[in-house]
Amino acid sequence: MSKNTNNKHAVSEITQLQAIIDLAEQEDFDGLIAQFERSKFYQSQMNANDFGELCNRLKLSQQERTLLATVIRLHRSTSEAEKHLARGLLHFHQRRFAQALSEFLAAKQGSEGNPEVTILLARTHARLGQQEESSRILKATLALHSDHAGIQLEVGKVLMDDLRDVDAGLKAIEKSIDLDATVAQAHFTLGNLQKDSGQRVAAIVSYSKVLALDPQNIEALNNKGACLQVLGNHQEAIENFDKALAINPNHLFAMMNKGTSLHKLNRFDESLTVTSRAFAIDPQMPEVLHNYGINLIKLGRHEEALEYFRSEILIAPNKLDVHLSLGNALHSLHKYQEAIEVFQDAINLDPNYIDAYINMAGSMQELGRHCETIELLNQALDVRPDYSDVLWNKSNSMLAFGPSQEAWEAYEHRLRISTWDPIPDLGLPLLSETDNQDGSLVVQWEQRFGDVIQMLRYVPAMEEKFDCHWQLTKPMADLARASFPDISIIGRNEVPEGAELRTPYTSLPLNSQSFAFDLLSTRDSYLTAPEANSKKWLTSLPDLAQKVGLTWRGNVNPPGRTMPLQEMETILSRFGTRLISLQMDITDKEADILKRHDVLHVGDEIETFADSAAIVENMELVISIDTALAHLAGAVGTDVWVLLKYGCDWRWYLKRSNSPWYPSAKLYRQQQLGDWSHIIENVAADLSKRW
């Protein structure tokens, strides 16, 4: 009962406040005073705490707080000058600057030397576009009150906020602090200036001084946390946001900022919980909706995220980042055409929005629309020439049509794109950026196992020209050593003494000038399993007339390179006793399917790529999704049938059933996005022909 009564009072007060606002907008100051005296706000002795509690209870905006405070001030005015001043403030806050100027001039006549009136006159002149007059008044005020810290501070704020004279404003604020370093507001204003100009470390120092003087200053806590957040100190930032929220649990921006730092720390469930509280306070705030959506994305709840992004667009249709997030969510759901349309909306809003071009290109590539992608990214290069993120994306579509010098050179921009962790420069120049054709060369690890396996074909050619040192991880070292006994193998990121140059693995085609299909493969195989591994698996595998290795699951990124095992039922039921599962980390459901069809599973016994190569050498055929095992089978020369998604990686090119990289490979391509049935039918038919 008590709660309902309080709610009725709050509604009544809000209604009365709206009536006061309406009268202020109508310039009916007599009616405004009469309405105020009839309202629950009429407390002539209301102190600062009472006023703050009232505003917090009613959840008033800053504008509403200012207006109400000014009304109270007008009601308490005892002189004509004070009334002119209060009416001028009401006009000013309603953006009626000409009327405000008239009232302030009248107030000045009745209160000569009042610095508040003088400063308000300067602000009003600035809002009316009369900057010279505003500047003249402020400089005179500074000179007249050179020893007054408070006036120096207020003038400094006007110089910055109204005249955008940062240097003069900063000078006045610093002088204010020199005169009296115990004024928290001066340090706070200086901190805000430093924060806005990118001096976040200095801003943190200023906010810390505020908090030493006023530990309960919520805005200083929030702003200090925001600076720490930008600097990547998220845990310390959260501590400041928590202190602010302990003072005011409903401080929306502290809540939002805490959610952002939790998100950056990959604590997505906690971030979502905090953002949910913010959503309960203001479900119409675009940033709240956006943060909620991106947390859902990180939690894999893409469909739910769509609802929040679409709601945000309804509230803020011109907000660019929400279009990007919505497009990315649709892309993650493999709804590429819908994603393309959303990215196009973003470009229509801002033709210079480079991220929208890049992400739209990614969705087009998933649909195999490489000509359109190249055209789109050429438009992006008109906006931002030589931008590496664009050039690398363009190279992926260029390479899909085949190798060329232009495509490989554009592919080098992967080394400078913003979305990848940079490859260490090792203190060495890139081979592709020098004229050197000999010397000690470090071949750097990059990307994934399949990429490195593919590029090891260049070992003999590079060894002829350079003293090479090949960075390899332990799972691949024994295989490489058996295949190329004389090469120098070093650890990932290791640099041998005397090294002069470096080149990443997938720069080797450019270094070797592989600019045509017939230059990609020099022999049928180039990798060989170590003898010990070959002997081990020769006796471990069953003695079958035909042995067919099988994998169906690749990395989650890029997406689409996994086929549910149950979709292979046709093959499993007809050829199960010949199949040997090489898939690692199978699920219980997958194990049950394999057992039901008498498929031998050895994937969990594989320890290194030396094991994988020895097994593959013992296979008559390998059937594989686009993963490292497909590259390995091609590299050792075993027949391999590669099952490719629609819009597959550039390495498999377009519309080919064979691979210029691997003579033993046969390619099966999806005809429709996400549909493996056509591939399975063709594989089953070809297996029947083979046996």
How are the secondary structure elements laid out?
Layout: H1 2-25, H2 29-38, H3 48-58, H4 62-76, H5 80-93, H6 97-110, H7 115-127, H8 131-144, H9 149-161, H10 166-179, H11 184-196, H12 200-213, H13 218-230, H14 234-247, H15 252-264, H16 268-281, H17 286-298, H18 302-315, H19 320-332, H20 336-349, H21 354-366, H22 370-383, H23 388-400, H24 405-411, E1 440-444, H25 449-455, H26 459-465, E2 467-471, H27 474-483, E3 488-490, E4 501-504, H28 508-511, H29 531-540, E5 548-551, H30 569-575, E6 579-581, H31 588-596, E7 600-601, H32 609-617, E8 621-625, H33 628-636, E9 639-644, E10 665-669, H34 677-690
Helix pairs in contact: 1-2, 4-5, 5-6, 6-7, 7-8, 7-9, 8-9, 9-10, 10-11, 11-12, 12-13, 13-14, 13-15, 14-15, 15-16, 15-17, 16-17, 17-18, 18-19, 19-20, 19-21, 20-21, 21-22, 21-23, 22-23, 23-24, 25-33, 29-32, 30-34, 32-33
Please supply descriptive tags for the structure shown above.
691 residues; alpha/beta; Rossmann fold; elongated; 34 helices; four-stranded parallel β-sheet; 10 strands; 59% helix; six-stranded parallel β-sheet
Give a structural overview.
The structure is a single chain. With 691 residues, this protein is α/β, with parallel strands linked by helices. Among the domains are: 431-515, no CATH class; 542-690, Rossmann fold. Helix content is 59%, strand content 6%. It is built from 34 helices and ten strands. Strands 7-6-5-8-9-10 form a six-stranded parallel beta sheet, with helices on both faces. α30 links the parallel β5 and β6. α20 packs antiparallel against α21. The chain is elongated, with a radius of gyration of 35 Å. The model is unreliable at 1-11 (pLDDT under 50).
